[in-house]
Amino acid sequence: MTSRLTGIVQKHLGRGARLGYPTANIAVAPEAEEGVFFGLTGLEGKNWPSIIFIGTPETFGDTEKRAESHLLDFTGDLYGKEITIEILQKHRDNQKFPDAEALIAQMEQDEAAVREFFKKKE
Questions:
Q1: Could you tell me the residue range of the domain that residue 92 belongs to?
Q2: Distance from C-alpha of 96 to C-alpha of 115, rounded to nearest angstrom
Q3: H-helix or E-strand containing 112?
Q4: Can you tell me whether residue 81 is helix, strand or coil?
Q5: How far apart are CA 66 and CA 54, in angstroms?
Q6: Largest distance between two CA atoms of the chain
Q7: Does any domain span residue 120?
Q8: CB–CB of 9/80 below 8 Å?
């Protein structure tokens, strides 16, 4: 599975950063497949291994579908910059968690899995 999304990073609520996983948010088509994916986020000529969420963050009662990419080991400000997200593999379906702590625990597992995925690709 390979697909690409391109967009300008939009400021949202900053929730990802508060949860320990800052994300670059871009608009996505309503028909885009939902879930958590492994992929690459292209920024200014460099590709960053990434965990990508596409969907509606149901844990927090959100209703707007979007793409959120967490660039592994990236620091910096992405707001207003154009990024390209390349999806390489689906990891799991979108799901609603009972609280932020349960979501963070799952994101930690997702991060370990994506790091293993890219280690095997090297």
A1: 3-114
A2: 23
A3: helix 100-121
A4: coil
A5: 6
A6: 39
A7: no
A8: yes
- Give the DSSP letter string of 34-80: PEEEEEEEEETTEEEEEEEEEE--GGGT----EEEEEETT--S--TT
CATH, residue 16: 2.40.30.30
17 found inside a domain: yes
- Listed in sequence order, the residues at least 6 apart from 69 whose beta carbon sits closer than 8 Å to its beta carbon are 23, 24, 26, 39, 41, 50, 51, 52, 53, 83, 85
Residue 107 maps to a domain: yes
Residue 52 phi, psi dihedral angles, 5° rounding: -120, 130
With b for 16 or more beta-carbon neighbours within 10 A and e for fewer, the 73-99 pattern comes to ebeeebeeeebbbbbbebbeebeebee
Each residue's pLDDT tens digit, 42-78:
999 999 999 999 998 888 778 889 999 999 999 888 9
Virtual torsion, Cα 106, 17, 31, 117, nearest 10 deg:
-50
Q: Tell me how many domains the chain contains.
A: 1
Report which residue type is found at 51: I
Within a domain: 119:
no
Total-model pTM:
0.91
